[in-house]
Design goal:
Elements: H1 25-28, E1 52-53, E2 56-57, H2 62-74, E3 79-83, H3 86-89, H4 113-120, E4 129-133, H5 136-149, E5 158-163, H6 168-171, H7 179-196, E6 200-206, H8 207-211, H9 217-237, H10 242-245, E7 249-255, H11 259-280, H12 286-289, E8 292-297, H13 309-324, E9 328-330, H14 343-359, H15 373-395, H16 399-404, H17 407-424, H18 447-450, H19 459-470, H20 473-489, H21 495-504, H22 508-518
Parallel strand pairs: 1-9, 2-3, 3-4, 4-5, 5-6, 6-7, 7-8, 8-9
């Protein structure tokens, strides 16, 4: 990385002029709220510049996480965003032998409907957005059933859940399910939510988690579009009308420290999405063209050294996101290098968003950087590079085959090695790591808070045993048999028997195991558990 190039390796000029940003205004930009939505998905002034302000939460049990949600809402959060612990994200119950030492330590432990009841208890589900970094079919089933029990019409629910059929095995939490099953679950859950939860974004493309291992902005969005395009084609193959589901597609992007590149990336993403949906997939509803973009500031940019510096990083990234006009923001806590956010980190992150909104005046004008020679030139170049990379990947062959063949895994590994090398060699400067370092004994500010540990919630094992004893075993077996029948038939929507099984008291691990066996995979890929008779 030279001194004069972006993080993605785009050469930068010392100054930009009108010659760098020439083009037809209506075709390339348009007003905010107008095709191709480069300048924002809503007309200027329609929302006052506001965005959903939430913070990533989830720690220990569902009851403990519910307390986090209530704390944040009491301090002004307008939505909640929950992440599961490592076993949950790997689709394992907390009593699995491989799960017990990680229960609740990096997110919330949830595995059956009772957990979701506790998770949402007392929350105004009809007035806030509820976003999920949880296994999508269970997040949808749990929210749908819990809302009905709480007297909330599921048609009023707003929020999102991540769909990750392509990359979860390579750079996230492996579920050890065949690609065909992962794709079917994604498409089935999107279809189910389109009918039952029409305001809910059941198709959230999460480019954050794939990119925070070291991908640059071009790679992040190119891989995101490869996955979006494949899932859209699958839904169209099923004859699901594009305008029935496309309005509820959203993209969760990363935001790093290259301020203007991240702003240009988001503007290019909106334009690319609009053109793709209209010109390639035939969408006609304007809502199908104007994608919701939500964002998480980059955990990879945070450092264990001098953690107080992470507060500055979160503020800079959040400001870039506001200038880019995203619909929701969450800031990585200053202690993310050590743990999921502490109460102090949650409050600092939320107050950062509120300060930007209320004190800086940056929300008064839509797309305030629109027309900047530099930003427009960078937006055009990012669009060109993302488009080229998508085409290059799709020319390699069927993306599903590339996924099964390890092509994407190699890309992720190369990116991680590249990032580590850039930091090690000082080409990517990080304050406190390779520049402006200080002795560890001097690095005391906030470290005591950041290093506060959280012990595994092993009591969840006994709680789950009690749950299994208290449920109607015959009803559970009947539901799982029906689920296996539908899964083996390779037709029919899996969400119908999955929701019924969840309502009967079946656990996520049991349901997932049945689905694996229906697709010829081991019930327990780690070899500890036997499939039930």
């Amino acid at each position: 990385m030279t001194e004069r190039q972006s993080h993605s390796g785009i050469p930068l000029k010392p100054v930009y002029t009108p010659a760098d940003a020439a083009g037809d205004y209506a075709a390339g930009l348009g007003d905010p709220g107008a095709y191709p939505y480069t300048r924002g998905r809503r007309p200027a002034g329609s929302d006052g510049g506001a965005w959903i302000q939430h913070e990533l939460s989830g720690e220990g049990t569902a009851r403990r996480s519910n307390e986090q949600f209530r704390y944040l809402i009491a301090h002004g959060a307008t939505g909640v965003d929950v992440i599961g612990d490592t076993p949950t994200m790997a689709w394992l119950d907390p009593d699995h032998p491989a799960a017990r030492h990680a229960i609740g330590t990096q997110g919330v432990s949830v595995c059956h409907l009772g957990d979701y009841r506790d998770l949402y208890d007392g929350l105004p589900l009809d007035r806030i957005t509820v976003s999920h970094s949880l296994p999508a079919p269970f997040a949808i089933a749990g929210l749908y059933l819990a809302a009905r029990e709480h007297g909330v019409d599921p048609a009023r629910l707003r929020g999102s859940t991540v769909q990750a059929p392509f990359y979860c095995e390579d750079c996230g939490y492996a579920s050890h399910m065949p690609f065909a099953l992962r794709l079917r679950l994604a498409a089935d859950s999107i279809e189910f939510a389109t009918r039952a939860m029409p305001k809910f974004h059941a198709f959230l493309e999460d480019t954050y988690y794939i990119s925070d291992g070291g991908l640059d902005a071009v790679e992040e969005m190119a891989l995101g579009f490869v996955e979006i395009r494949y899932v859209v084609r699958e839904l169209l193959r099923r004859r699901v009308p594009v305008d029935s589901f496309a309005p509820r597609i959203a993209i969760l992007v990363n935001c790093r420290m290259d301020c203007f590149e991240e702003i240009a990336k988001i503007r290019a993403t909106r334009r690319l999405f609009a053109r793709m949906m209209r010109e390639e997939f035939g969408a006609r509803d304007p809502r199908s063209l104007a994608v919701n973009v939500t964002a998480h500031t980059s955990g990879l940019t945070l450092t264990a050294q001098q953690p107080v510096n992470n507060i500055v990083r979160g503020a800079v990234q959040a400001l870039a996101l506001v200038l880019a006009g995203v619909q929701a923001i969450e800031i990585s806590g200053f202690d993310e290098a050590f743990r999921t956010p502490s109460p102090e980190a949650h409050l600092i992150a939320l107050r950062t968003q509120q300060t930007i909104e209320l004190e800086t005046n940056v929300t008064k004008v839509a797309d305030p950087l629109g027309g900047s020679y530099y930003v427009e030139a960078l937006t055009d170049e990012l669009e060109r590079r993302i488009t080229e990379m998508v085409a290059r990947i799709e020319r390699q062959g069927d993306p599903a085959s590339l996924c099964d063949g390890g092509w994407f895994r190699a890309l992720f590994q190369d990116a991680m090695e590249r990032h580590a090398r850039q930091v090690r060699e000082g080409r990517l400067r990080k304050v406190g790591v390779n520049v402006h370092r200080m002795a560890e004994e001097e690095d005391t500010l906030l470290r005591a808070v950041a290093e506060r540990k959280f012990e595994p919630c092993r009591e969840r094992v006994d709680e789950l045993a009690a749950h299994r004893r208290s449920r109607d075993g015959g009803r559970v077996r009947e539901a799982l048999v029906d689920l296996q029948r539908v899964a083996e038939g390779k037709t029919g929507n899996l969400m119908t028997p999955l929701v019924a099984g969840f309502a009967a008291g079946a656990t996520m691990g049991e349901i997932t195991g049945i689905l694996r066996t229906a697709y010829g995979a081991p019930y327990d890929p780690l070899g500890h558990l036997k499939a039930p008779a």
